[in-house]
Design a protein that fits this description.
heterodimer; A: 249 residues; Ribosomal Protein S5, domain 2; 4 helices; globular; B: 202 residues; alpha+beta; OB fold (Dihydrolipoamide Acetyltransferase, E2P); 3 domains; 5-stranded antiparallel β-sheet; 3-stranded antiparallel β-sheet; 34% strand
Chain lengths: 249, 202
């Protein structure tokens, strides 16, 4: 967004650089239960994004003075691998950006997980971005919801997130890296599936009120598609034999 | 059973108020809180869940610390249990394995144990607590079947620790336990297990 330049051509004949229409989302594949040592896990490949999410807990809260006697504490760590992206994006451990994303993702799940069921414990959500191509925070929320279901942590609802925005003067869904970097606006948004609550809403860049309304409609539509993908991934996993650790004997 | 519909968190189970584990109630309707499926009678069966101890559950624990008035016991839960030295006829050492019953669970999830007995040498296998009912089976049918073929003692803790005596064919127990984990949600598990045990018995 820092390089927002109205002269950059991101649309051609109503199509985007990668051939998508303005409301298309990238190709997404979700896999459940890929890490036998975690309580729950999932992997997502969303266009060029590759993200692993592992969930641990509820377990003893450390440090102990951070424990809440009335509910579980949700902790989230978003990390980008040094080789995940161009330039300094994921270069050096925790930074301003990863701290922000950890916080916003944590807040999404704090409002979904039934934390009152597990007093004095913590629930950890670990998100490892292996490859980034724009929209990692929304992909992380989407995959973490699947990993938490896989861990059997009680949640009030499923959540799916998507980024919408404006590039080359058009309101579009699921921004790629180029559209994010050279577009006019980027709005990541997360919806809970059943009651459609907005659990995450950020905005970078500028949009008019009308454009934002249109963007939210597109986001809502896209989140329905994402919920379908999450459901299919979980169904595929749970309808077949699953879950056994392979012991080396 | 594979034709049964998978239910995800947030899916509505009933228009009425039903108090079941792993569900929640909102606007007088019942919703699922974890992944599960519904059986013929419409009852919600969870496929994944976090174990919460209740009165009379059997737990297997490992003594992790000896203190002046008792023992800390790892019971595969967020908080460890404390066993008073007065409740034990013989002293315990770190590493000893005990079987016990849940006497009380307080409001923050701390467990009090009773009926404590020390178990002899053996192997501890971790097992998903949500699948323990399938490992025991109706009237212990699955457990008796496994015991019969592995030739040893087996105690299943509701907390997901399974104790196996030294005399048992431990590799076979591991394989049998894996089979239960993999196919816990499918029908014909007992028949499957019988075939499997006969085929793999030494």
């Amino acid at each position: 967004m820092g390089n927002a330049n109205p002269n950059v051509k991101l649309m051609k004949d109503g199509k985007r650089l990668d051939g998508r229409s303005s409301t298309d989302i990238r190709k997404i594949r979700i896999e459940v239960g890929i890490l036998p040592n975690a309580a729950g896990s999932a992997f997502i490949e969303w266009g060029g994004n590759k993200i692993i999410c592992g969930v641990q807990g509820p377990r003893e809260c450390i440090p102990k003075h951070g424990a809440d006697p009335y509910k579980a504490v949700v902790k989230c760590r978003y990390m980008m691998a040094p080789f995940a992206s161009h330039d300094e994006h994921g270069r050096s451990g925790p930074n301003r950006r990863s701290n922000e994303l950890s916080k916003v993702i944590r807040e999404v799940f704090e409002s979904l997980i039934i934390t009152e069921a597990f007093p004095k414990t913590q629930i950890d959500i670990y998100i490892e971005v292996l490859q980034a191509e724009g929209g990692t925070r929304v992909a992380a929320v989407t995959v973490a919801a699947v990993a938490l279901s896989n861990a059997g942590i009680p949640m009030k609802d499923m959540v799916s997130a998507v980024a919408v925005g404006k590039a080359d003067g058009e309101v579009i869904a699921d921004l790629s890296r180029e559209e994010d970097n050279f577009g006019q606006s980027d709005v990541p948004v997360a919806f809970s599936n059943r009651d459609g609550n907005i659990l995450l809403l950020q905005m970078d860049g500028l949009m008019t009120r009308g454009e934002l309304g249109k963007a939210m409609d597109i986001a809502q539509e896209s989140s329905k598609k994402l919920y379908k993908l999450q459901t299919d991934a979980l169904k595929e996993y749970y309808e077949k034999p699953h879950g056994a650790k392979k012991f080396q004997l | 059973m594979s034709s049964r519909k998978i239910i995800l968190p947030g899916d509505r189970i009933s228009d009425k108020v039903l108090r079941m584990p792993n569900t929640y109630i909102e606007n007088e309707m019942t919703y699922a809180a974890v992944v599960g499926m519904s059986d013929e009678t419409g009852k919600f069966i969870s496929l994944e869940s976090c174990y919460k101890p209740v009165f009379e559950d059997v737990l297997i624990g490992i003594v992790t610390d000896v203190r002046h008035s008792g023992y800390s016991v790892d019971i595969n839960l967020p908080s460890s249990a404390f066993v008073s030295a007065r409740d034990m006829r013989t002293p315990l050492n770190a590493g000893d394995v005990i079987a016990a019953k849940v006497v009380d669970v307080d409001e923050v999830g701390e467990v009090s144990l009773g009926d404590i007995r020390k178990l002899p040498r053996g192997e501890i296998i971790t097992f998903p607590p949500s699948k323990v009912p399938r490992l025991i089976g109706r009237k212990s049918s699955m457990l008796l079947l496994i015991k019969e073929h592995v030739g040893g003692e087996l105690i299943v803790g509701n907390n997901g620790f399974v104790w196996v005596s030294e005399s048992a064919d431990i590799p076979l127990v591991y394989k049998a336990v894996n089979l239960v984990i993999e196919k816990a949600h499918l029908t014909g598990l007992t028949d499957n297990m019988q075939e499997f045990l006969i085929a793999n018995k030494k």
